[in-house]
Every structure is written in structure tokens, then in C-alpha cells.
Amino acid sequence: MNDKPDKQYNLLIVDDEIVVRDSLSKWFKQDGYKVDTAEDGAHAIKKMSEGPWDIILLDIKMPGMSGLELQKRLREIDPSIATIMITAFASVESAVQALKEGAFDYVTKPVDPDHLSHLVENALRQKKLADENARLHERISEMAQGDEIIGNSPQMKKVIELAKTVAQTDTTVMVRGESGSGKELIARAIHANSARRFFPIVAVNCGAVPETLLESELFGHEKGAFTGAQYRRKGKFEMADGGTIFLDEIGTISQKMQVQLLRVIESKQFTRVGGNEMIHSDFRIICATNKDLEAAVKEGSFREDLYYRLNVFTVFIPPIRERRTDIPLLVDHFLKKYSAVMNKGIDEISPEAVDVLVRYDWPGNVRELENVIERAMVLAKPPSIRPEDLPFQSSVKRPAPADDSIASVEKAHIEAILAKTGWNITRSAETLCIDRVTLYNKIAKYGLTKP
Amino acid sequence: MSSLLIVPISPYDKDGVEGLVAPLQTIFRLPVSVDPRNSLDPSFAFDTFRNQYNSTSIISELDERFAESDKKILGVSSLDFFVPVLTYVFGEAQLDGRIAVVSSHRLDEALYGLPANPELLRDRLVKEAVHELGHVFGLIHCHDYMCVMHASTVVEDIDVKSERFCAHCDAMLKSKVNGSLSAFY
After folding, report:
1. How far apart are CA B128 and CA B121, in angstroms?
2. A249 to each of A17, A335, B173, how far by Cα in Å?
3. What is the rounded CA–CA span in Å between residue A431 and residue B2?
4. Would you call B77 exposed, middle or buried from its count of C-beta atoms within 10 A (0-12, 13-18, 19+)?
5. Could you count the other beta carbons within 10 Å of the beta carbon of residue B149?
6. Which of A148, A155, B3, B93 is the most buried if burial means most Cβ atoms within 10 Å?
7. Is A268 left (phi over 0), alpha (psi -120 to 50) or beta?
8. Residue B55: closest CA among chain A residues belongs to which residue?
9. For residue B79, with 0-12 CB atoms within 10 Å meaning exposed, 13-18 middle and 19 or more buried, which class applies?
10. How far is B153 from B116, CA to CA, in rounded Å?
11. E strand or H helix at B7, and its extent?
């Protein structure tokens, strides 16, 4: 009672005797609690909708539903409730039963007033801690959401919806999409929204690890398993225990690894390289690929059984050229991100520059877009990014033909292609489907000059 | 409700009752009188099993008996009071109501096997009377340990706090007392 109350706590008293209800509610009202009473289990359950209650004082012996039974039901409705059992006839069995089923404490009537006030204070203190804990957990999981997935297009909304749905389950997920489209981001979002979020997500880029090391990388190794293995090392599957393992570029793994992977997925157990000890790990698999796995299965380079094991639920991320409406949003996101990092006073982008970005084809997808914005931030002068700060401005900024004559259009077109290739005559000629001599002639004819 | 009426309930400590008048007058800034009749027989509130008196029943009886009165009523006794769910109480009050009772029984050092201390007993009785009347005026327990509205479940707690309201409770009390005065006039 020494700490100032920051809010009024709610107390529900359930007892079949009116004198007990009255005297307890009076006592607690004088202590500043908001108090309500119920005469039996049925009324108490009804009162639950008027809550939330912080503490419920429950008589064990009541006609109809007993206090123990009621406690069970109340906890089903709100598991965070602290219950205190009160009884006129103390028995060890009922006390033990009440405490086993989660009662905070158990007291006999009549209660020593000093004892009662301490009891309620302690119950409240514990409840406050539990509530705080839950709140902090929530905040952590909010923070663990990580990078935002940006996109307002119907295609992207669908992706986010799918990811959210599958996150709740333990299903193996395959994320597909072009290079740079954000497959790992989706994998992390699925993990962050799953029940496994308090355990790690371990990412392995199967394509980046040399074939010889991949086995040890995934399963770990014992000391002396191979030359240079001086220490025992845990593998990624072991590290992902309780969490998620993200296998990127799954399409690149060898036939031998495919067999091993298949076995681990099926049994959830494995041995370290050079070891005998069977290691169990509880992991969820999310894998990603930009390869055509179906074709690989057909030509026999990817095992069909592993393919079906991994391809349980697929999330396909469309390339950004197929969802151009997302480009301004992404641009805005990266602009904010890098303007915060670089602190150069550039926090906008000209509409012309956005237009250029929207029309570009983005073979490198979001990753390329991010790099372009970062680069532009370096080059641009405050306050905004303009088309000339973009690396491919020359290819997109087409010189307009002077008039509608064939000659003017041809001149403008050749000029544009030359600009795009950086005045590489061979490549320009190839693009224009004319030979180099013809191109030289046309350059001379139209008086084009290298900038 | 312009005044307080002290109703002695036999057996009671005469000095204790008389000693309440002046402090209550000062603290509540209201006229205080003692009911001279002393006609309340508390035997109806006796619980043979517990050998104690049910203070809730006494409050009900006082409420009935003084139904016509516009005064705040304080029953004072040296009986051992209880409310059904608790082992004992020093006093009881109707929160934001009219009636309160206090007992000097458990405030007496002699009960705890110590030498009697009439002065200390009187101080404790004043504090408990002010506390219960505070409830009658709608005040709830206060977290300031020096405030008379601080909850006391054992006598040692009573000795720690003062007989005065803290600034916050005093302000609350003033608004209540003035409120009831203006309502009265």
C-alpha cells in the first residue's frame, strides 16, 4: 500500500453469503477498489463481461457450481485473473487443489484484516508484473517485425495476406520471386508473425556457401571431422532449434545435399559431420529460390521428393515491373530511410525523377531500386533528387523529335540509343538492327556528336 | 448535515467519549454533541460463537434509530467488534453515508498484555474516530502513511499515522462538508 495507485483496480467477490459479500465489498471499497459482487457461479460468469477484473475472491463452497469449478471457468475466460479462494471450512485437499489450479492464495473465514490487505496487495503486485511482462513481450514482438514490407498493389497485398496466414502454422514455406524482390524479407516477416518469433530465424544462403562446406554449415561438425576442423561447431539446423531456418537459393544445392536435407526434414534429427550423436532440433523451414525448380525436377537435377517436401505452401513475390504502382511507395520508403541515415537535407524527389523510376524495368527489383535511391542520395543536391541524379537517366530521357517526319523521329531514336549504350557503336548498331557503317553514316547525316 | 452526534454504546469508556468532542470539532470544523440517552443495548449484535459484536448490525440499528436525524452519527464502544469475514475490526463506517462505529477494545494496551496507557488509548480512539468519520464523508484509504485515512489493520499502524488529514484528503473533505452544508441550507 506504499506505492501510489496509478489506476483503480477492479475486484469481484463471489460468495453465496450476503454478509460476506457485503462486508468484503465495503472493506475493499474503503481501500479504493472498484468492487462488485456475485452470489454464485452463474452470476460471476455473467459479470465477466463487465470486467476486466484484476482480482476475484471466490468462496470454495457454494451451492451449484463450486468455487474450484468456477475458478476453472473464469480462467478460461480470462487467464490473467488472480483468484483468491476463501473458505469457511479449511481442508488441506481443497487448498492444494485450489493452488494447483492456479489460485493465487487460499484463506479461511474469518480472515485477519492485516492478512487480507497484504494478500490482495501481493496478488495485485504479481498481476501487475504479469501484465507488464505481457506488455513488454508484445512490444518486443512489435519491434521484431523488422523491415517493413512496402506495397499497396493488389499483388503485394495478396502476398502479405498469404504470409500472415501461413505464419500462424508450422508449414514449410517456399518463397519464390526474382532476384532482389525481397524473398528474405517475406521469410523474416513470416517468422516474426509466427509462434516461433521468440526463437531465432537462421538464414543460410545455400548458393553462397561452397558445396564442401555446406554440410558442415547446416549440420555442424565434431572436432577433427576434417582438416581444419579444430573445434566442434553447431550447425544452422541446431541453431534454429525452436525457431526457423531460412534456406535461400535452395535450387543450387547438390544431389548429395538434397538427400541429406530430405532426411533431416522428415526426421528432424541429424548427426554433426564426423559425429555419432543424434541431435534433435525443432525447426520450421522457409526456403527461397529464383530458379525454375519444376524444370530442374523434370531434367533430374532437383529431387522430386524433396521438391514436394519443400513446396507445401508457396508465396510468389511479383517483380516490381508487374506492380508499378508500388514504385512511388518504395521510393518514398527508401528516401526516408537514407535521408535519415545520410542527413543531407534531401527529403524529396522531383515528380520527373519518380516518373523515370516508374517507367524503368527493374531487372534487379527492390534491391536495385534501393541501390539507385542510395546512389542518388549521394549525388543529389538538396533539397530533392532530380532525374539527372539517377544512373540511367540518359537511357530514359529521350530527345524529342523536332517534328513528325521520318527523319526527325529516326534522328531522335538513334540519339537515344547512342545515349543508352554510352555511344558504343557496336551495341547501338545491334540494337538498331543495322550495321556499324550505316550507323556511322546516319550519325554523320544527322550531325550527332558524342556528349 | 451540519453536525456530528456521538452515541455511546455500553460498555464504553466515558473519558474516551468525552475526549473525542474537542478534537472532532477542530478537525471537522463542525459542532459535535454527545447523545445523552445511551439507550442502545448491543446484545442483538452479539455472536455467541465468536464472542464478539457484529459492527455491521450495530450500524444498521443506529441507522434505523436515527433515521430522522440529519446528523452524522458516530457510535463509540469498548466492545470487541467484528464483521463476518474478518477476525476483528477497530471500527466500521458507511462509505459516503451517515453512520460509523468505533471500538476502543483493541486499542487498549492492556489487551496486548502491556501496562495500560490511557493517553495512548485516547489518541488511538481519536484517530480511529476521525478515520471512520472520514469514510462517512466519502473518503477512501490514503497512501500517505501520516494521513489519518491511511489504512490500519494493527494498532501499531494507528500509532504511526497522525490524527490529521493529508492535504489531498483535507481538500476532499472540505468539498464534501461544504457540499452537504450548501445542500442543507
Report:
1. 11
2. 69, 29, 74
3. 104
4. buried
5. 25
6. B93
7. left
8. A23
9. buried
10. 21
11. strand B4-8
pTM metric for this prediction: 0.53
- Dmax (CA) for chain B in angstroms is 50
Block residue for cell numbers 475490526: B89
Class of residue A381 by CB neighbours under 10 A (exposed 0-12, middle 13-18, buried 19+): exposed
Measure the CA–CA gap between A275 and A9, rounded to whole angstroms.
58
Q: Are A358 and A324 in contact (CB under 8 A)?
A: yes
Instruction: Calculate the CA A30 to chain-centre distance.
Output: 48
Cα angle value A259/A260/A261 (rounded, 5°): 95
Partners of residue A3 in chain B, C-beta under 8 Å: 143
Cα gap B160→A288, rounded to integer Å: 70
Contacts of A31 by beta carbon, 8 Å cutoff, 6+ apart: A117, A120, B140, B141, B151
Integer Cα distance of B22 and A444 in angstroms: 118
The cell 489506476 sits on which residue?
A7
Helix, strand, coil percent values for chain B (each to nearest 5)? 45, 15, 40
Q: Which residues, at least 6 apart from B43, have a Cβ–Cβ distance to it below 8 Å?
A: none
Secondary structure letter of residue A250 according to DSSP: G
Helix, strand or coil for residue A36? strand
Q: In the structure grid, which three cell numbers stand for residue A154, read together?
A: 493488389
Contact assessment for residue A423 and residue A450, using Cβ atoms and an 8 Å cutoff: yes
CA distances from residue A236 to A207, A215, A229, A314, A408 in whole angstroms, order as listed: 15, 10, 16, 23, 62
Specify the amino acid at residue A17. Answer: E
Q: Which of A34, A35, A114, A118 has the highest number of chain B CBs within 10 A, making it the mutation to test binding with B?
A: A114
Amino acid at B36: P
Closest residue by Cα to residue B122 from B130, B132, B133: B130
Task: Please state, in angstroms and rounded to a whole number, the distance separating the CA atoms of residues A140 and A35.
Answer: 34
Matching residue, cell 494496551: B109
State the DSSP code for A48.
G
Compare CB distances from B85 to A1, A109, A117 and report the shortest one's residue. Answer: A109
Q: How far off is chain B from A12, nearest CA to CA, in Å?
A: 15
On whether the CB atoms of residues A50 and A36 are closer than 8 A, the answer is yes
B110 touches chain A (CB under 8 A): no
Bridge partners of A286?
A173, A246
Question: Which amino acid makes up residue A96?
Answer: V
Contact B151, B157 (CB under 8 A): yes
Contact present, A236 and A275 (Cβ < 8 Å): no
A24, A30, A110 ranked by CB distance to B87: nearest:
A110
Rounded Cα–Cα distance for residues B170 and B134 (Å): 10
Q: Please give, rounded to a whole number of angstroms, the shortest distance from the CA of B56 to a CA of chain A.
A: 8
pLDDT one digit per residue (tens) for chain A, 451 residues: 344 445 678 899 999 888 889 888 988 988 889 899 999 888 888 888 777 888 999 988 888 888 888 888 888 888 888 899 888 777 778 888 888 888 888 888 888 888 888 888 899 888 888 888 877 776 665 555 555 777 788 888 888 888 888 988 889 999 998 888 888 888 888 888 888 888 888 888 888 888 778 888 888 887 777 776 666 777 888 888 888 999 998 888 888 889 989 999 888 888 888 888 888 888 999 999 988 888 989 988 899 999 998 988 999 988 888 888 888 888 888 888 888 777 777 888 888 888 888 888 888 888 888 888 888 888 888 788 888 888 875 444 566 777 888 888 888 889 888 888 888 888 889 888 898 899 999 998 888 887 7
